Structures are given as C-alpha cells and as structure tokens.
C-alpha cells in the first residue's frame, strides 16, 4: 500500500513537472506573439494607409475613413499630377536614380568581388592591414565622408556630373567584407589548389572556379549595393546643384516643398496635393520592391552561404 501511494505521488509529481514547462512555453509564446503583433501593426498600418491614400482626393483623404478605398478617377488624377509635375521631372528623376544605382553597382561588383577573393584566398603584404582597414571604414558613417569627397571631386571638376554620385557610391566596403567571409568559409582551398596544379593562372582560378561558386554572395552584394544606392539622399543632394540631375529620393524634397500642407507659400498652379505626394513615395520605393521580389531566392542562398563548412 505504501509503495502504491508513493508511486502515485511520483506520477503526480512527474505530471506536474511535465505540465510546468508547457505552461511556461505557452506563456512565452503568447508574449512573443503579442510583441510581434504590436510591431506588425506599427509598421503595417502606415503602409496600408499610404496605399489607400493614393486613391483619394485631398478632401476625401481628410474627411473619409482613413482605411476606406477611394476611386480610380482620383488615382488617375493623382498619377497625372505626379508625372506632370514640372514637365515630367519625376520621370527624369527616376531615370537618374537608375543611372546612378546601376552604374555604381557595376563598379562595385568589379571591385568588391575580386577584393574579397584576394583578402580571403591569397597571400600578399599588408593583407591583414587592408582587412582591418576595411572593417574600420565600415564603421564610419557615410555622411561623414561626404564633405571630404565633395572637396576632392570639386578639385578635379566633377561636381554636378553623374560621376560625382556614381564614383562615391561605388565605394562599398561592406560588399568587400561579405565577399571575404564567403570565400574564406565556403570555397575549398583544395579545389583552388587543384586548378593551379592543372595549369590555371590566378586570374583563371578566380574567373573559372571561384566566381561561379560565388553566385549567391554576388547576388547578395548586388542587392545591398543597389538598395543603398537607390535610397542614397545626402550624397546626391550635396553633389548635384541642378534639379535636372536629382535622383528620385532628392526629387521628393521638391515635391514636399510644392505641397501646401507642408509649405503654405507653395499654393499655385504647380502645387502638389497630399495624395500625389503619397503616390510619389510609393513610386520611389517600387523599383527596390520589384528587385527584392525577383531576387529573394538568391538572397536567401547568399545569406545562408558560409553558415556551414564542409
């Protein structure tokens, strides 16, 4: 009898121990779910409001329900006003953004990928010093470098030209470091040594063996570089004195200055209403969103590459 009672008590105690962690697990998941929900609502509500705002007129934006859908006629009117602003300035700004972003991206890939390979898989003097310098430069805010870059480019007479934006944007130490990590952890050195034994030069080893295997990290560097270039504001704002050369992110300031809700003195024939400004915001981020949607498979492969070492 005593042994049976002891067994029952032991079973009850084990059951309590089993239920305890489950209760704690459920409470932890509930708290995490609430926190995630708060963050989702915090970021999602402004985006949803923005999407609805472009379908409304200025009056309905203020009077109607914030999350009520407007009309196609109001959306068309906002679209026409946006792309008719200053005789199609928005189209010019989008073209400038594409030119600066793609031009800087090409130079970034031509420089960052070989640099990361050299730092990871070759031996030369000052190699470790260059790696440390790359890490240090990554920690420097990009805005802190705009003034010395401006003075340097002004000396050679490039201020106001596309090169005054493309060349500084091409300086991407983060891409060099990403490539260094990938080559250092994911490319077998024995494979490269075998290629050298077969008679390949160092350039052939890089282009025929290492580079094809580095496609995921190349895509990752390209995406980060493009997003940073497209969203860059301060550098082109300083380097480009004329609005004809503005990228779309800088051009948004002209639209903001022409909006009477933010600048009452701008009321006139060329003024911009709030729904049109909301549409301009969506148009400015749409290329980045499209690039992300089409490249997310490569981005996931690039982010997970180097996580394990065979």
UniProtKB/TrEMBL annotation:
Segments forming domain ABC transmembrane type-1: 94-295
Annotated membrane topology: Multi-pass membrane protein
Classification via PROSITE patterns: ABC_TM1
Entries under InterPro entries matching the protein: MetI-like, MetI-like_sf
Record key words, sorted: Cell membrane, Membrane, Transmembrane, Transmembrane helix, Transport
Predominant localisation class: membrane
A Pfam family annotated for this UniProt entry: BPD_transp_1
Keyword Membrane: yes
Bilayer-spanning residue ranges: 30-52, 98-122, 129-151, 163-184, 205-227, 272-294
Superkingdom as given in the UniProt entry: Bacteria
Transmembrane helix recorded as keyword: yes
Region (Disordered): 1-20
Entry's localization field: Cell membrane
Family: Belongs to the binding-protein-dependent transport system permease family.
Record-given protein name: Carbohydrate ABC transporter permease
């Amino acid at each position: 009898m005593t042994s049976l009672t002891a067994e029952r008590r032991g079973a009850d105690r084990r059951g309590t121990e089993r239920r305890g962690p489950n209760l704690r697990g459920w409470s932890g998941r509930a708290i995490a779910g609430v926190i995630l929900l708060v963050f989702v609502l915090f970021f999602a509500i402004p985006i949803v409001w923005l999407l609805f705002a472009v379908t409304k007129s200025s009056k309905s934006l203020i009077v109607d329900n914030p999350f009520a859908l407007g009309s196609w006629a109001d959306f068309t009117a906002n679209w026409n006003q946006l792309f008719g602003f200053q005789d199609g300035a928005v189209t010019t700004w989008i073209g400038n953004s594409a030119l600066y972003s793609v031009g800087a991206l090409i130079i970034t890939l031509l420089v960052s990928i070989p640099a990361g390979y050299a730092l990871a898989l070759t031996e030369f003097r000052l190699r470790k010093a260059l790696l440390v310098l790359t890490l240090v430069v990554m920690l420097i805010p990009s805005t802190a470098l705009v003034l010395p870059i401006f003075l340097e480019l002004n000396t050679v007479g490039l201020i106001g030209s596309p090169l005054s934006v493309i060349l500084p944007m091409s300086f991407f130490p983060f891409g060099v470091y990403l490539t260094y990590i990938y080559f250092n952890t994911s490319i077998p050195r024995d494979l490269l040594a075998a290629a050298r034994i077969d008679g390949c030069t160092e350039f052939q080893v890089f282009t025929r063996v290492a580079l094809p295997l580095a496609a995921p990290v190349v895509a990752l560097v390209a995406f980060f570089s493009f997003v940073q270039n497209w969203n860059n504001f301060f550098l082109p704002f300083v380097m480009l004195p004329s609005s004809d050369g503005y990228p779309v992110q800088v051009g948004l300031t002209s639209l903001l200055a022409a909006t009477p809700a933010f600048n009452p003195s701008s009321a006139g024939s060329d003024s911009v209403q709030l729904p049109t400004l909301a549409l301009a915001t969506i148009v400015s981020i749409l290329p980045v969103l499209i690039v992300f949607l089409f490249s997310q498979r490569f981005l996931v492969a690039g982010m997970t590459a180097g996580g394990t070492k065979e």
